[in-house]
Amino acid sequence: MILDEPTTGISASQKEKLFETLRKLAAQGMSVIFVSHKLEDVEFLCDRIAVFRKGELVGEVDPPYVTDELVKLMFGRVISAEEKQRYETCDVSFHLDHVTIEDYRLQIRDINLSVSCGEVIGLAGMEGSGQVQFLRTCAGLIRPVAGEINLGGKRLTGKPYRAFLEAGIAYVPASRMEEGLIPGLSLTEHFILAEEQNGFFINFDKALATTRQRIEDFNIKGTPVSTVESLSGGNQQRALLAMLRNPVNLLLLEHPTRGLDIESSIWIWGKLKERCKQGTSIIFTSADLEEILQYSDRILVFYGGKVSPPLDAESTTVEQLGQLIGGKGF
C-alpha cells in the first residue's frame, strides 16, 4: 500500500485511527510506503525512513531517529525557527465588542477581543468549532448579528467586504486553489489583478517587472508565465502572501502552513513576522497545536460555538490546549 500525505487535513483522532489501521496491516504482512513531509508522523509510525531531495535518494535511516539529522538530509542543512518576539508598535488596533456570529448550524455569542499592532492571535479548536466563521467575520465576509467591529477607531460593523479591504484587512483562505488563486492564470496575471490599476489600460512591462521582483523577494519557484496550479503548495502560499497590498493592518489566515514542509513553514512565518515588525496584527487558525503555541502571543480556544478568554501562549501547554479543545474548562 502506498499513501501520499495521508495525514494532511485530518484531525488528531483520525490520524491515530489511521496509524492503528496501518500497523495492523503491516502486522498481517502488508508492506506500507508512507510518503510525508511531517517528521513526527514518519518517526512515530515507520520502521525505516528513506529521504529524497530534488529527485534523489539522499539517505536511509533506521530507528532511533534524530530529528535534526533527518532535517539535514531533507534540506542539506539544519533548519531552525526564530525565537518568538513581540513587536509592540501601537495600542489597540482591532477591537470586537460583544460580537455574535450565527450560521445555519452554529452560534458564537458575545465575543470580546482587543488586538494590538504587531500581535499574533492563534485560534485553536476542532474543525467546525467556529474558527473559520470568526475569521470570515473579522474579514467582512460574514456579518455579525450583534456587536461592534472596529479597526484603528474606525467602525466597520455592517460594512461591505470592500470597506474591510480598504481599511487594510487582508484574508488568506485555506483553500488556495478554490478561493485564493485562479486556476489557469499565470503569476503575472495574478499580480495584475492584485494591484490597483490606474486608467483603462494595463502596463504589461511594469506588471512583468513587478512579478519578477515578487518572485525574487518571496523565493517563489516559478516564472512570470507559470500558472498557479503548476506550483507546489508552498509556492502557492508564497504567491498569495506576495499579492497582499500594503499596508496591511490586520492579516487573517486559515491554516497558513497546512501541507507545507518544514522549510516552507518556517519561511512563511519569517515573512509573517516581518509584517508584525511593521505593525501588522495577525489572527490565524491551525490544526497544529505546536504551531499555535510557537507563533502566537495569545490564544483563543473554540469549542462548540464557545470561545475561551485569551490565553497567554508562553504559559500555556499542549496538554492544557488539548483539554480545552475537548471541552474541559468551558
List low-pLDDT spans: none
Tally of individual domains: 2
Helix content, binned percent: 25-40%
**What structural category characterises the helix and strand content?**
alpha/beta
Q: How many strands in all?
A: 15
Q: Can you name the CATH architecture of the largest domain?
A: 3-Layer(aba) Sandwich
CATH topology of the largest domain: Rossmann fold
Arithmetic mean pLDDT: 88
Label the overall shape: globular
What is the CATH top level name of the largest domain?
Alpha Beta
Distance between the termini: 42 Å
Q: What would your notes on this structure say?
A:
- The chain is an alpha/beta fold.
- It has helices at residues 12-27, 39-45, 67-75, 131-139, 161-166, 176-180, 187-194, 204-217, 233-242, 262-277, 289-295, 318-325, and strands at 2-4, 33-35, 49-53, 56-61, 92-102, 107-116, 120-124, 146-151, 154-155, 169-172, 250-254, 281-285, 298-303, 306-307, 311-312.
- The longest helix is centred in the N-terminal third of the chain and has 16 residues, at 12-27.
- The protein has 12 helices and 15 strands.
- Helix 7 packs across helix 8.
- The strands form 4 sheets. Strands 7, 10, 11, 12, 13, 14 and 15 form a 7-stranded mixed beta sheet that branches. Strands 6-5-8-9 form a 4-stranded antiparallel beta sheet, covered by helices on one side. It has a two-stranded parallel sheet with strand order 1-2.
- It has 2 domains: 2-75, no CATH class; 92-325, P-loop containing nucleotide triphosphate hydrolases (Rossmann fold, 3-Layer(aba) Sandwich), CATH 3.40.50.300.
